[in-house]
Structure formats: structure tokens, C-alpha cells
Write a structure and sequence with these properties.
alpha+beta; 5 strands; Nuclear Transport Factor 2, Chain: A; 7 helices; five-stranded antiparallel beta sheet; single chain
Length: about 220
């Protein structure tokens, strides 16, 4: 066998080796395959971006579930969220429901020390005067809280200069309550009669502060 033929066989062997090596790495292609289309991926990215923009600039259900969209209260609540991104209106109202029962029952029992941290100084002094007058007359209140029948967020205000949020909530509570004198006789109420108590309370807090507690700063409209 002459030299050119030997060289040809060597080259052919190398070519076969390279083809087998490529197949082991890239796999086998059969027929005509279109190149990967990039448009669907681009459209998908664009759709995701648009969806994200709608979420970012859209309606905040945490606000509009409780107050009218675009209202003064809604704008104030949005400002509170901007000042404190972790603020949730829904969670606030859940806390307000618990605070209503705790403060109301503390006041009825005359246990002012337990509720003092959750009252502004002005509200604390007003409640304390009523409790002191009650005790001076020898009156004792026996009350049992049943639950909150209705709760509505009626107003909200945000003071940017102080980063202070104020939220007014209307409550309709259900409870039993009787007033007894020194002798234990009932002078007001019936033991098993459930009464509805309506209260309008305003809570306030400096948004973004380390203290998570809202304080009752006003009662009444």
C-alpha cells in the first residue's frame, strides 16, 4: 500500500472518531430543526414585567377592603405604608379588636395599671377619674365581654411632619354588665341581659418606630 493511501485511511479514521465524539456530547439530530426562537421568551419576560408593574401600581386590597379607594382615609393609610412598609391594615384591625376588649374590660374592672401602656396620658387621666368616682361611691361593676358585633375603620390621618398615623375605628361590642352597691344590690343592669355598646376610638402611633404598640388617644367622634 502506497503512502498516499495510508494517509487517506488515517484521515478517515480521525474523521470517524471526531463524529462519534460529537454525537456523544451533542446528541443525535434527525431531520431539519429550526433554530431556537427567542421571541416567546421575550414576550414572556415582557408579560411578567407588565404584571409586576400592575401589582406595584395597582389597587392595594389591604386598604380597599376596609376603606373606599381614593378616599382621604385610603391615601392616609398608603402614606403609613410608605413610612413603614411592614404595616398591614388588616393586622392593625385584628389588634384593635383585641385592644378594644382588653381596654374596655380593664376600665370596667377598674384595673387601670394593666391598660395604662395602651392609653395616651389624656385618655388615661379621663378613665382614671371615672374609676375613682365610681370607687368613691362604693359601686362595683361586674361585666363579661361576649364579642365584637361590628367593627369599621371610619377615618385615617397621617401627619408627615411627625410620621404619626391616626386611625379611627367604630366598635359595636356585646357584653353583660351590672352595677352593684356596697351591699351587693344591683343598681343598674341585668346579669343575663346582653347589651350592645357603641364606641368610636382613635388609635395613634409614630410609624417606623421601634414601639409596635398603638395607643388609644381619643374616644368619641
Amino acid at each position: 500500500m502506497n503512502a498516499p493511501m495510508i494517509q487517506l485511511l488515517v484521515l478517515a479514521g480521525i474523521a470517524v472518531f471526531l463524529i462519534l465524539k460529537l454525537k456523544s456530547v451533542l446528541g443525535t439530530r434527525e431531520g431539519f430543526e429550526k433554530p431556537p426562537e427567542q421571541a416567546p421568551m421575550a414576550d414572556s419576560a415582557q408579560e411578567k414585567r407588565q404584571a409586576f408593574e400592575v401589582i406595584e401600581g395597582g389597587v392595594d386590597r389591604d386598604i380597599t377592603d376596609h376603606v373606599k379607594e381614593g378616599s382621604v382615609a385610603a391615601k392616609a393609610l398608603m402614606s403609613m405604608k410608605e413610612a413603614e412598609p411592614g404595616f398591614s391594615v388588616t393586622e392593625f384591625l385584628q389588634g384593635a379588636r383585641g385592644a378594644y376588649e382588653m381596654i374596655l374590660m380593664g376600665f370596667e374592672r377598674g384595673d387601670m395599671d394593666s391598660i395604662k401602656p395602651f392609653l395616651s396620658q389624656e385618655v388615661f387621666e379621663t378613665f382614671e377619674e371615672v374609676v375613682a368616682a365610681r370607687q368613691k361611691q362604693g359601686l362595683i361593676i361586674e361585666a363579661q365581654f361576649i364579642g365584637v358585633r361590628e367593627m369599621t375603620l371610619s377615618k385615617a390621618k397621617f401627619l408627615k411632619t411627625k410620621s404619626r398615623g391616626e386611625v379611627t375605628v367604630k366598635f359595636v361590642g356585646e357584653l353583660t354588665s351590672v352595677v352593684r352597691d356596697n351591699a351587693g344590690d344591683i343598681v343598674e343592669g341585668k346579669p343575663n341581659e346582653v347589651k350592645h355598646q357603641k364606641d368610636v376610638w382613635t388609635f395613634a402611633r409614630n410609624m417606623g418606630s421601634n414601639d409596635p404598640n398603638w395607643k388609644l388617644v381619643a374616644t368619641g367622634e
